[in-house]
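Summary for the funding panel

The consortium committed to producing paired sequence-structure records for every protein in the target list. Below we show the first two records in order, beginning with the earlier of the two.
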Amino acid sequence: MTKAVGYIRVSTEKQATGGLSLAAQRAQLEAYASLYEIELVGIEEDAGASAKSLQRDGLARALTRLESGEANALLISKLDRLTRSVVDLNTLIQRYFIGTTGLSLLSVNEHIDTRSAGGRMILSVITVIGEWERASASERTSAAMQAKKRRGEYTGGPVPYGFRLGDDGIHLEPELSERDIILEAKKRRLRGWSLRRVGRSLTADGLYTRNGRPWHPGQVARLLEASHGA
């Protein structure tokens, strides 16, 4: 027999008593369970919780009841009660409802019932769309980062040696004191000095790392490697 835990959600406290209220969703789940002879072991809820994140207390409790074996199905009124993100929905599907988990997803309004072949097919389509959206988002992010680099804009992480973040918080500007150190390191390296000797000589001349510490060979190597664009 199917034992389902229900999950209901509204985005704001005001919606809790509106047309898409928690009470209306609860009644819908109870009617569905009764009609299809599903044992409803409980209903978890999130009142005033955004679907932007999966980090919700009510959802966590519902998923825990699946993981513990108390229920073998998750019952919802609509997919957007779980999440409005195709990627997040795909994450839930992959973890709980695809493969050999033995768990089912039941959605009243979309007529999804993964206990059937048709329901599993619909879920597979959603999964494919989710993977496509994830890959597309990654490509868009990568393209945006490359464009920012071409414009000389800061893309996050440590600011490259020889630069500082401009007052606008976006563009990188030359840091002249560090560029002087880069120039000295290049000159000494061109004399055939080892990385260790270059580091010791810079330190001896009072030219320290950005953290005010002596130069080590590995740091000198990274300094010279990163200095090509400086």
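The next record, for a separate protein in the list, is shown here:
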Amino acid sequence: MRTDLIRKTALTAAGLAFTGGAIAGPVTMAYAASDAKPASQTQTDRKNHSERELGVRYEAQPNFYYCGPAATRNALSVQGKNINVAKQTDTLRTDIVRTVDDGRAVVANIAGTTTDTDGTVHSFEGGHYISVVGYRDNGNTVKIADSADPNMASYWISVEHLADWIATRGYSTS
């Protein structure tokens, strides 16, 4: 029993690390190459210990599930990098168009509920993986291949709904 708990904990941690990298990795890589200087820092010595506080340009998350992108944005602001969390949808759209044009699909790790363009609700509160296999309207609408229900093997959703659906998880274009 304890081994199963340890294994599940390790797999969850590994999954979170991988997913966090899928979301924050491209953003971090893009901005890490910037020449921006770090924001102001304060440091005070106290009885053989140091104390340091980094200057952050704080921005609140726009909804309850964008904590990952918002935390990344706040962390990068310490280095003088200013990103817009909403631009993550633009990045997702660009990644999907480029990947599909290259003849590859996108794998997305989703959680929660969304509605497709036909009004059908798709709910995976515990999480699920889907494939993005096409786009139309310049990437504003994407085609999903979903293995969960053979009667609903594929459907179209807006890229904004997809971005919200994967906000707590991530995607891979590899």
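Regarding this second record: Residues 2-85 form one domain. The two ends are 36 Å apart (CA to CA).
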